[in-house]
Structure formats: structure tokens, C-alpha cells
Amino acid sequence: MRAYGQAYAIDVVADPVDTPRPEFGRRMMRAVSKYPAFGAPVFAMLDGEVVRASGWRRDHRARSNAWGIFYMMAEGMIREIGGPGFVVGNHVTIRSDDGVYATVAHLRQGSLTVKVGDRVTAGSIVGHCGNSGNTSEPHVHAQLMDRASFWTARGLPMTFAGVTLDDEDERTEALPANDQHMTVNSPACPETH
Length: 193
Description:
Mean pLDDT: 89
Structural class: mainly beta
Number of strands: 14
């Protein structure tokens, strides 16, 4: 999807072996607290200055079956009327010194730990995972853009540094494929995956 600078965006979903996500189906909507991602720390993707920080939007229940997804799609059309902020939900955008903009979105209401003008380093905590904006379940939406405005930004390709994929032991720079497990240890939170 090219709108809002999302051409190369990725949704990162927590799927730990010891705390599985609720199974899709049965209930139309579920409490977000049932998902292992909800409340997990979210990290800055790069070094730079915070140029956008929005954390006031509420977290809504997860859409957890086909009817729930249908409801989310209809709800999404209404969110579009409000503009990109209502689609991406709570978010932080950081401008690197070389002019790349990194956004993490769908953050938990009231969880932002940064504000516009703050200088951050890659791997520092900027907020916590939520379920704000147009989402089906708690996850982090991550994207790189050529400018700060969601209206005019073009998405940029990205990779994650220092990650392991699936059961590999070696760290690499990569972008995981769909349904591939990625593990990363942040300097700010070494036990986080």
C-alpha cells in the first residue's frame, strides 16, 4: 500500500513460543490484554530527532474473527475521513541526520516516553505497543519515509540490523518474510524479543 508512505512498511506481531497469541476465529472482538504484544516496549528504529509524537488515541478491542475484520474494514473507511493520524493511531516519527524518517505506529495510549524535539538513539524505548488506529490486534507498524508528512511521503525500503531469523543462531541484517520469526535484543532491553 503506497498511501501514507507505507510502500515498504512492515507489521511486527509478537508471537512468543511460551505465550501464544489468541487463535483467530470464534469471538468477534477480544480484550487486547490477551495478546502478548500489548504493553511491550517499542524502540526507536534509528538515531535522530523526534519530529512527530502522538499518544492520545484510545486502544480498542482486537478484531479476532472474519466478522471482526469486516467491522475493522468498515471502521477504517470512517478513520480515513479523519486523516492519517486516525489510521496510524498513536505514533512516533524520528528524522535521522541524513533525512530519513522512521515511524512506529499503533502505540498504547499514554505510553509515549518521548516528545517532539527529543534526540533519541536506535534501540531506545519510545513507547509501548498498543492497539490504536486501524488495527486488528496489538502489533507495531514500522516504516521508513522520505519526509514527515503522511500525506506526501514515499516509503523507503528497510532492513533490521542484528536480528536472527527463525531458529538460526547467527545475527544478520534482514527483512523477515511473511510468517517468519525475527528475534532481536535491544541494548535498552536485552531480554526482549
